Protein backbone atom coordinates (compact mmCIF):
# COMPACT_ATOMS: atom_id res chain seq x y z
CA UNK A 1 0.00 0.00 0.00
CA UNK A 2 1.40 3.31 -1.04
CA UNK A 3 0.27 6.26 1.14
CA UNK A 4 0.64 8.45 -1.94
CA UNK A 5 -2.27 6.58 -3.50
CA UNK A 6 -4.61 8.10 -0.92
CA UNK A 7 -4.92 11.37 -2.78
CA UNK A 8 -2.20 13.30 -0.97
CA UNK A 9 -4.23 13.75 2.21
CA UNK A 10 -1.40 12.51 4.39
CA UNK A 11 1.78 14.51 4.56
CA UNK A 12 4.34 14.93 7.29
CA UNK A 13 2.75 11.89 8.99
CA UNK A 14 -0.31 13.90 9.97
CA UNK A 15 -3.81 14.00 8.58
CA UNK A 16 -4.05 17.50 7.18
CA UNK A 17 -6.18 19.53 4.81
CA UNK A 18 -4.94 20.23 1.31
CA UNK A 19 -6.50 21.13 -2.03
CA UNK A 20 -7.52 17.52 -2.72
CA UNK A 21 -9.11 16.80 0.69
CA UNK A 22 -12.15 18.59 2.01
CA UNK A 23 -12.44 17.20 5.55
CA UNK A 24 -9.70 15.30 7.39
CA UNK A 25 -12.32 13.36 9.31
CA UNK A 26 -14.65 12.92 6.40
CA UNK A 27 -15.42 10.17 3.97
CA UNK A 28 -12.00 10.06 2.31
CA UNK A 29 -10.08 9.50 5.52
CA UNK A 30 -12.64 7.04 6.86
CA UNK A 31 -12.43 5.08 3.60
CA UNK A 32 -8.63 4.96 3.91
CA UNK A 33 -8.88 3.78 7.54
CA UNK A 34 -11.42 1.11 6.58
CA UNK A 35 -9.24 -0.06 3.69
CA UNK A 36 -6.16 -0.23 5.90
CA UNK A 37 -8.00 -2.21 8.56
CA UNK A 38 -9.39 -4.59 5.94
CA UNK A 39 -5.82 -5.09 4.72
CA UNK A 40 -4.73 -5.75 8.31
CA UNK A 41 -7.43 -8.42 8.58
CA UNK A 42 -6.52 -10.07 5.26
CA UNK A 43 -2.79 -10.14 5.80
CA UNK A 44 -2.98 -11.13 9.45
CA UNK A 45 -5.33 -13.99 8.62
CA UNK A 46 -2.99 -15.22 5.87
CA UNK A 47 0.41 -14.61 7.52
CA UNK A 48 -0.16 -14.19 11.25
CA UNK A 49 1.45 -10.75 11.11
CA UNK A 50 0.95 -7.28 9.71
CA UNK A 51 3.37 -6.48 6.85
CA UNK A 52 5.76 -3.55 7.23
CA UNK A 53 4.16 -1.57 4.41
CA UNK A 54 0.74 -1.81 6.10
CA UNK A 55 2.27 -0.82 9.45
CA UNK A 56 3.91 2.14 7.73
CA UNK A 57 0.60 3.25 6.23
CA UNK A 58 -1.12 2.84 9.62
CA UNK A 59 1.64 4.92 11.20
CA UNK A 60 1.11 7.67 8.62
CA UNK A 61 -2.55 7.86 9.57
CA UNK A 62 -2.48 7.24 13.32
CA UNK A 63 0.98 8.53 14.27
CA UNK A 64 1.64 8.37 18.00
CA UNK A 65 -1.50 6.29 18.73
CA UNK A 66 -0.40 3.25 16.72
CA UNK A 67 2.34 1.75 18.90
CA UNK A 68 0.39 2.07 22.17
CA UNK A 69 -2.66 0.57 20.43
CA UNK A 70 -0.60 -2.37 19.19
CA UNK A 71 0.71 -2.89 22.73
CA UNK A 72 -2.89 -3.08 23.98
CA UNK A 73 -3.66 -5.62 21.24
CA UNK A 74 -0.58 -7.70 22.06
CA UNK A 75 -1.51 -7.65 25.76
CA UNK A 76 -5.04 -8.94 24.99
CA UNK A 77 -6.54 -5.91 26.73
CA UNK A 78 -9.60 -5.61 24.47
CA UNK A 79 -12.89 -7.28 25.41
CA UNK A 80 -16.24 -7.09 23.63
CA UNK A 81 -19.03 -7.10 26.20
CA UNK A 82 -22.46 -8.22 25.00
CA UNK A 83 -25.80 -8.91 26.64
CA UNK A 84 -28.94 -10.87 25.68
CA UNK A 85 -30.72 -7.66 24.60
CA UNK A 86 -28.12 -7.23 21.85
CA UNK A 87 -26.30 -4.25 23.31
CA UNK A 88 -22.53 -4.31 23.01
CA UNK A 89 -19.58 -2.24 24.10
CA UNK A 90 -15.86 -2.73 24.31
CA UNK A 91 -13.76 -2.53 27.43
CA UNK A 92 -10.08 -1.77 26.97
CA UNK A 93 -7.68 -1.99 29.87
CA UNK A 94 -5.36 0.96 29.35
CA UNK A 95 -1.62 0.93 29.88
CA UNK A 96 -2.15 2.28 33.42
CA UNK A 97 -4.59 -0.54 34.23
CA UNK A 98 -7.66 1.69 34.00
CA UNK A 99 -10.62 0.20 32.11
CA UNK A 100 -12.09 2.39 29.37
CA UNK A 101 -15.37 1.90 27.55
CA UNK A 102 -15.43 2.23 23.76
CA UNK A 103 -18.13 2.26 21.11
CA UNK A 104 -17.03 1.58 17.54
CA UNK A 105 -19.99 3.14 15.78
CA UNK A 106 -19.09 6.58 17.13
CA UNK A 107 -15.37 6.02 17.81
CA UNK A 108 -16.20 7.05 21.39
CA UNK A 109 -13.94 6.24 24.32
CA UNK A 110 -14.29 7.19 27.97
CA UNK A 111 -10.56 8.08 28.24
CA UNK A 112 -9.30 11.64 28.75
CA UNK A 113 -7.32 11.52 25.49
CA UNK A 114 -10.52 11.06 23.50
CA UNK A 115 -12.08 14.08 25.20
CA UNK A 116 -9.04 16.27 24.60
CA UNK A 117 -7.32 15.10 21.40
CA UNK A 118 -10.31 13.82 19.44
CA UNK A 119 -13.08 16.17 20.52
CA UNK A 120 -11.52 19.38 21.81
CA UNK A 121 -8.39 19.71 19.67
CA UNK A 122 -9.56 17.50 16.82
CA UNK A 123 -6.02 16.42 15.95
CA UNK A 124 -6.59 12.65 16.28
CA UNK A 125 -9.05 10.46 14.41
CA UNK A 126 -9.44 8.18 17.42
CA UNK A 127 -7.66 7.40 20.65
CA UNK A 128 -5.36 4.40 21.12
CA UNK A 129 -8.16 2.44 22.83
CA UNK A 130 -10.58 2.70 19.90
CA UNK A 131 -7.73 1.98 17.50
CA UNK A 132 -6.87 -1.13 19.54
CA UNK A 133 -10.50 -2.27 19.29
CA UNK A 134 -10.53 -1.73 15.53
CA UNK A 135 -7.23 -3.59 15.12
CA UNK A 136 -8.44 -6.48 17.31
CA UNK A 137 -11.65 -6.75 15.32
CA UNK A 138 -9.69 -6.75 12.05
CA UNK A 139 -7.28 -9.38 13.34
CA UNK A 140 -9.96 -11.54 14.93
CA UNK A 141 -8.42 -11.19 18.39
CA UNK A 142 -11.21 -9.70 20.46
CA UNK A 143 -12.00 -11.50 23.69
CA UNK A 144 -15.73 -11.81 24.31
CA UNK A 145 -17.66 -11.56 27.55
CA UNK A 146 -21.39 -12.20 27.89
CA UNK A 147 -23.09 -10.32 30.71
CA UNK A 148 -26.67 -9.81 31.83
CA UNK A 149 -28.77 -6.90 30.62
CA UNK A 150 -28.51 -5.35 34.08
CA UNK A 151 -24.72 -5.65 34.13
CA UNK A 152 -24.30 -3.86 30.82
CA UNK A 153 -26.81 -1.23 31.95
CA UNK A 154 -24.69 -0.64 35.05
CA UNK A 155 -21.58 -0.32 32.88
CA UNK A 156 -23.34 2.29 30.75
CA UNK A 157 -24.53 4.19 33.81
CA UNK A 158 -20.93 4.55 34.96
CA UNK A 159 -20.25 6.62 31.85
CA UNK A 160 -22.44 9.46 33.12
From TrEMBL:
InterPro entries: Znf_SWIM
Keyword DNA repair appears in the UniProt entry: no
Keywords: Metal-binding, Zinc, Zinc-finger
A Pfam family the protein falls into: SWIM
Location of the SWIM-type domain: 100-138
Record has Kinase as a keyword: no
Residue runs in coiled coils: none
Identification of the protein by name: ZSWM7-like protein
Organism for this UniProt entry: Mya arenaria (Soft-shell clam)
